Amino acid sequence: xxxxxxxxxxxxxxxxxxxxxxxxxxxxHPEPAPDYRSEFQRDRDRIIHAxxxxxxxxxxxxxxxxEGDLFRxxxxxxxxxxxxxxxxxxxxxxxxxxxxxxxxxxxxxxxxFGHAGQDxxxxxxxxxxxxxxxxQSLRVVDELEEKYAAFSGLNLTFETREGILKHCSLKxxxxxxxxxxxxxQKTQPGLEAQLTNLADEIAYNSHDVDDGLRAELLSVKxxxxxxxxxxxxxxxxxxxxxxxxxxxxxEIVRRxxxxxxxxxxxxxxxxxxxxxxxxxxxxxxxxxPLITFSDGMRERNLELKRFxxxxxxxxxxxxxxxxxALRVIRDLFNAFFDDPxxxxxxxxxxxxxxxxxxxxxxxxxxxxxxxxxMTDRYAITEHERVYNPGKLx
Length: 393
Ligand code: MG
Fold this sequence. Notes:
Blueprint: H1 39-48, H2 51-55, H3 74-91, H4 96-105, H5 114-124, H6 133-144, H7 158-164, H8 170-173, H9 181-185, H10 191-214, H11 220-223, H12 227-239, H13 245-275, H14 280-284, H15 295-313, H16 316-338, H17 345-372, H18 376-387
Helix pairs in contact: 1-4, 3-4, 3-10, 3-13, 4-7, 4-10, 5-16, 7-10, 10-13, 10-15, 12-13, 16-17, 16-18
The structure holds magnesium ion.
Residues 77, 81, 106-107, 200, 204 line the site of magnesium ion.
């Protein structure tokens, strides 16, 4: 049976607790409603046209961008998250446009070199308020994109911004006004934000398995220790004995994604039927998320995560990359913070502006913004330009 077409602009045919334009808390700077698009479609379109979104193509998740053309980048990861999240949203009659906007924007604040880069920048910023990648994604869409005449940032709706800010320290939440409230009150965001968060997990667990196998840092045999993988492996082996390695892996990975999506939709629908939230506000006032895996799937999922941490993220070849990333980021931060005149002119202006607002913390923040915006290869080239006397500046 096919799902009836939804009209996201009016919210008809959406579940009563879905986000809609009508129930939106709006934008920081009021704007007339868009022609022919919903408010959340407009958010998505602004995200796609943002410079920070284009740079995701050259930023990595686990592997460094130039290690191979076949691995996921932040851009392909974000597209995979959007695909998974939209499927879930449509199945649950939630707002697909909002879901897509959140998914495409969720990693826009990521530093070069994946998690290693983020940890390095956080360390550099310890005396200046720290660095949180979710908060940086929000900073990109709220302040750093310079495209519009009337405002800085992209002026996105509250709901998209709420979805982007997955986590936030209490200290920072207190400074964020309405958007930070839920962290202080320990309540939940809308369902579109909740599901995109889990779609992100489904995407990266599955594609890290895929990329790890392709890079031969993991073996199929080793992965059969993990129940979630083993179940799919056995099904594929039984259905297609003698299938090539490449096809076997893909058949497993697609099943990995599918079984988690199906579980998520079913157990979340069950919760929603039990709790019956009347509307979006009722969803937001809950202490626990309504979008969840079943207990069994959550356990299997954790087992896979533990396996990946142990065998992939801590693999010596990944660690070498992380150690290099740490050095590059640290060196760049120190050089620019100590002598901002080494920065390109635009970045120097930002240092000056933020310094006027918050003295040396502002200076550090402007340097962190500049470094966080770099792609992997740009960071490597900048490092060369700043530190290698033989390299042209
Ligand atoms: Mg992500």
